[in-house]
Structure prediction request, 342 residues.
Amino acid sequence: MRFGRITHPLFREHDPGRGHPERPERIGAAEQAFRKAAPLFDVVARAARPAELAELQRVHTQGLIDHVLSFRGRRGSIDADTHISPASVDAALLAAGSAIDLARMIMSGEADTGFLFARPPGHHAERAQTMGFCLFNNIAAASAALLEEGLAKRIAIYDWDVHHGNGVQDIFYADPRVLFISSHQSPLYPGTGAEEETGEGPGAGYNLNLPLSPGSHDGDFAAAVSRAVVPAIRKFAPDIILIPAGFDAHAADPLAQLEFTERGFAHAAGLLKSLAGECCGGRIGFILEGGYDLKALRDSIGAVLKTMAGGAIPDAAGFPAASHSTNLMIARQRSRFNLDGA
Ligand SMILES: [Zn+2]
Prediction:
């Protein structure tokens, strides 16, 4: 399996400051997992390059872009919870450019899959507003590049970060070319992601939220993926599946109260990998979002990479049964999105 690989030293230089959970050491943990898994893949490496202005303008307002660029080379706070160091804006430009290039590599067949370990993350950045440690929306920029350049007609994005992917939802809310799915803890930051947020205008029916109660575990995760995410993506029939992959739903994570484990993430990756094989030529790419416990981050990425390389998929029969509230939520969304029979 050919693995698209793009990295840059600046992904470790972005420093929100002492004690901040979104810290440079996260890249070290991810890279450790990658080094261990790399021999399982045929690695196709490409140099990172900054996103161009036109690529950012597809997903962000000029106001947001100018605001972020005004911080280039400086230390400061871009918004209430997004703090930066002198290298941060250049790191953000490289993260967005790398996300675009990884998606292009997979779409063109240069790589079968890939996982971008870049910082700062992106899924909270809305069209006009940075937030939640995110400057530019990396996965949205990658998706928009494929669509606008005619490389893909339909893209499915499944965000399993513990926080709702409000930025991706905001950017594609009225766009029927992107099916956006998010499973996340609710209630939790940023407060969006209700079941009833289903898209608008031509995008109505292309935004699927799967809010999970605090304490939800691998059994709830597996139920949401197998009974909602997989049938929704299968029905949508995308050209590629992109995963904003955060690992802050792990039981050890300090920022949230879900109880997923590395086995749950590997199981989800396995289901999505076989779905990609069935619906879109095996094309699936991952981009790192959150995940703030370094060991959980390293072990979870390692488990996902092993599964992607062809390792055994953990059996969901070993997971605790999904809760009543999760089953009811899935049933409501299956009905709302006409997935019964899909
Ligand atoms: Zn998160």
